[in-house]
Write a structure and sequence with these properties.
single chain, alpha/beta, Rossmann fold, N-(1-d-carboxylethyl)-l-norvaline Dehydrogenase, domain 2, 2 domains, 12% strand, binds NADPH dihydro-nicotinamide-adenine-dinucleotide phosphate, binds 4-oxobutanoic acid, HIBADH-like_NADP-bd, glyoxylate reductase (NADPH) activity, HIBADH-related_NP60_sf, NAD, NADP
Amino acid sequence: MAICSSTFVPQIPIYLKRIPISSFLIKPIPACSSQTLTTTSASKDEFPARVGFLGLGIMGTLMAHNLIKAGCDVTIWNRTKSKCDPLISLGAKYKPSPEEVASSCDFTFAMLADPESAADVAFGNHGAANGMSPGKGYVDVSTVDAETSKLIDRHVKAAGALFLEAPVSGSKKPAEDGQLIFLTAGDKALYDMVSPFLDIMGKSRFYLGDVGNGAAMKLVVNMIMGSMMASFSEGLLLSEKVGLDPKILVEVVSQSAISAPMFSLKGPSMVQSKYPTAFPLKHQQKDLRLALGLAESVSQSTPIAAAANEMYKVAKSHGLSDQDFSAVIEALRTKLQSP
Ligand SMILES: NC(=O)C1=CN([C@@H]2O[C@H](COP(=O)(O)OP(=O)(O)OC[C@H]3O[C@@H](n4cnc5c(N)ncnc54)[C@H](OP(=O)(O)O)[C@@H]3O)[C@@H](O)[C@H]2O)C=CC1
Ligand SMILES: O=CCCC(=O)O
């Protein structure tokens, strides 16, 4: 299995010739470690590559917005066209299909809901692969399983183009702030070419080698996250049942060895039974399902993730799919357990 490289010789592609050389020199790729990135205030002249963005949901909209704000030449598409309008009013170009976006851009990013939509947009009817050709690159930042990613890779390669999987860690606020963490794998040349764009949208990037490794890393991270949230939910409800103030539990946890930004961020609203959507519950359940498939493929036992997955399934069956994933706590409330 290929792993991260620890040295980086800048190879400046033609598209990026006008990006200040310092942008490359100050961002060597460390061996799988985060990097501190500079913010640039740029113009289209500084980012002459044409960048496509497919999929403008919660994450895609904010990521594409950051590219536009940085001065990139961005062309967008979304299944529901109305979601394109705010970005068009900020200067984005629009094309009516993924194929047309890909054929008019040098690099095309895709942020889709799940493996099915990622595959359909990449190589279905009028999919991006139809518009790809040598010299172009496709970067899928959706959370999918390794098999789907490899399938997309094959279609993109068949068109003579390059492919990078680059799922992200970090939710709505990090996406808004350009603070995402990219977990990339695939064509290293494409990784080098799109790094300036990843750096606009994120705070760090990891290059993990062969296609599938980025997807696997993302699923392992989200498997841990889904289980943590399920366990936190049990703790909140138990504290309430035994007469403790769950608000104080949140405070105690935040000062303890098990402190995590996620608990401090989500805890106060969970205590009020409010779940403003940053990461939809249906996507967390999808990630647990895919992570369990990954574990199954290597005969790894994951009983805690399996139990957590059941909680998310119960929450979905009670209509909570589009709420934030912290609404999984509702699956533990007596009224939901026996509808
Ligand atoms: N939200 C978060 O915190 C994070 C999410 N992710 C991952 O990023 C991806 C996107 O998440 P998020 O933005 O929250 O999700 P949303 O549900 O907000 O957006 C999903 C996007 O996929 C599109 N889509 C869904 N089905 C299809 C289809 N059949 N054909 C074409 N397009 C389709 C939607 O189009 P339409 O508008 O027409 O419905 C929309 O653009 C998911 O894989 C998720 O797991 C990763 C990190 C964080
Ligand atoms: O896939 C979603 C991840 C959400 C997060 O990292 O906070």
